[in-house]
Amino acid sequence: MTSTPMVNEVGRTPLDNAVEVIRVEALHKFYQLGETRVHALRGINLAISGGEFVAIMGASGSGKSTFMNILGCLDRPSSGRYFLEGADVSDYDKKALALIRNQQIGFVFQGFNLLARTTALENAELPTLYTKMNRQEREKRASDALALVGLSERAHHFPSQMSGGQQQRVAIARALVNRPSILLADEPTGNLDSRTSVEIMEILQHLNDKGLTIVLVTHEHDIALFARRVLVFRDGTIRKDDLVLNRPKAAEVLKTLPTLED
């Protein structure tokens, strides 16, 4: 990396004319642990526009994971509003939230969560089983998604026949197969070595350049700087909201890294 990326503390999005895909207003989340009431989120206000690439950082207990669970419709806020592509989903029931998770949001996790006895193509195809697509369309979607992450030649390999980076690529393909408008990635490089981590960020940057909105949680500052915007959570609040200036291009960074031997 030839220059150090800088952040600009402006607290706004870099895509001023883009349509908001995420907006949260006065978002609070409480948990009851025995007799203790935990205030996990404390009045979060945030807007994310279509086409942004936002990284979220923060120590354990900062609220970032709780916030991601709400963005992913895996949990509901205790109070406040969450607007997803203009619809207030704060009070949606479980069935409606499940439909959103299947059709509008793609998920990538630190653990690849692939089915061991299922090929890359079949793993990528899994989310389509909950749609009305026919088999031919499902297979085409899965094949296209694998091609997008550079794994067409591994379509019929099982997870045990792939490296960690390849497995994470399959997981990304699975997240993309229903063509979501938002990709949520929770520590996607957490189980990977340095070079493979940058390879995954190259894929995410490429997807973002094609217009996909990405929200990424990471503990790694170097990984966060591949995004366009960095949020820092602390004690259930957003303490920083910075634009990344002169962000590194993962494809260029890879040229400076040694190739790791198997």
Give keywords.
262 residues; 28% strand; Rossmann fold; seven-stranded mixed beta sheet; 8 helices; alpha/beta
Question: In words, what does this structure look like?
Answer:
By secondary structure, this protein is an alpha/beta fold. It has helices spanning 64-71, 94-103, 120-125, 135-148, 164-176, 194-209, 221-224, 250-254, and strands spanning 6-8, 20-33, 36-49, 53-57, 79-84, 87-88, 105-109, 182-186, 213-217, 229-234, 237-245. A seven-stranded mixed beta sheet has the order 1-11-10-4-9-8-7, with helices on both faces. α4 crosses α5 (164-176). Residues 8-14 have low confidence and may be disordered.
Short description:
The chain is α/β, with parallel strands linked by helices and 262 residues long. The protein contains eight helices and eleven strands. It has one domain (6-37, 49-254): P-loop containing nucleotide triphosphate hydrolases (Rossmann fold).
Topology of this protein?
Elements: E1 6-8, E2 20-33, E3 36-49, E4 53-57, H1 64-71, E5 79-84, E6 87-88, H2 94-103, E7 105-109, H3 120-125, H4 135-148, H5 164-176, E8 182-186, H6 194-209, E9 213-217, H7 221-224, E10 229-234, E11 237-245, H8 250-254
Parallel strand pairs: 4-9, 4-10, 7-8, 8-9
Antiparallel strand pairs: 1-11, 2-3, 2-5, 5-6, 10-11
Helix pairs in contact: 4-5, 5-6
Report strand %.
25-35%
Query: What's the CATH class, please?
Result: Alpha Beta
Oligomer: single chain
What structural class do you assign from the helix and strand content? Answer: alpha/beta
Radius of gyration: 18 Å
The shape is: globular
| Largest sheet strand order | 1-11-10-4-9-8-7
Second-tier CATH architecture = 3-Layer(aba) Sandwich
Largest sheet: 7 strands, mixed
Terminus-to-terminus distance:
24 Å
State the CATH topology: Rossmann fold
The CATH superfamily is known as P-loop containing nucleotide triphosphate hydrolases
What percent of residues adopt helix (DSSP H or I)?
Answer: 25-40%
Total of helices: 8
The figure for the number of domains is 1
- The helix-strand sequence is EEEEHEEHEHHHEHEHEEH
Say how many strands there are. Answer: 11
